[in-house]
Design a protein that fits this description.
The protein has one domain (2-94): Rieske Iron-sulfur Protein (3-layer Sandwich), CATH 2.102.10.10. Helices cover 0% and strands 46% of the residues. The protein contains no helices and 11 strands. It has a 4-stranded antiparallel beta sheet, with no helix packed on it. Strand 7 (63-65) and strand 8 (70-73) form a beta hairpin. The radius of gyration is 12 Å and the shape is globular. It binds FE2/S2 (inorganic) cluster (FES). The site of FE2/S2 (inorganic) cluster has 10 residues, from loops.
């Protein structure tokens, strides 16, 4: 699905699997995957800003925890789907439901 070499620590990458838009987030040595569509008004999360595990939507700044997809501010209780990630060598795989 993606290569670890294309995903430097602290960066985001947009990928798709079938009809599912996904944002990959590299936090240290870990990679997390969430749905790319913001729960507020559909902003593209892969174009947002990643600080540690916090991802800010580029449109209005809603903040998500990329480890869980949970919105932390200001839309508490909102979330985007998060998906398990497998790393196999340099390959990044996302397991969709
Ligand atoms: S669309 Fe993401 S914060 Fe509004």
């Amino acid at each position: 699905m993606a290569s670890l070499g294309d995903l430097a620590p602290g960066t985001l990458k947009y990928v798709e699997s079938g009809d599912t838009p996904i944002v990959l987030a590299r936090v240290g040595d870990a990679v997390y995957a969430c749905n790319n569509v913001c729960a507020h008004q559909g902003g593209p999360l892969s174009e947002g800003k990643l600080s540690g595990a916090r991802l800010a939507c580029p449109w209005h700044g809603w903040m998500y925890d990329v480890r869980t997809g949970q919105c932390r501010f200001p839309g508490r209780g909102a979330r985007v789907a998060s998906y398990p990630v497998r790393l196999e060598g340099d390959d990044v795989w996302v397991d969709l439901p």
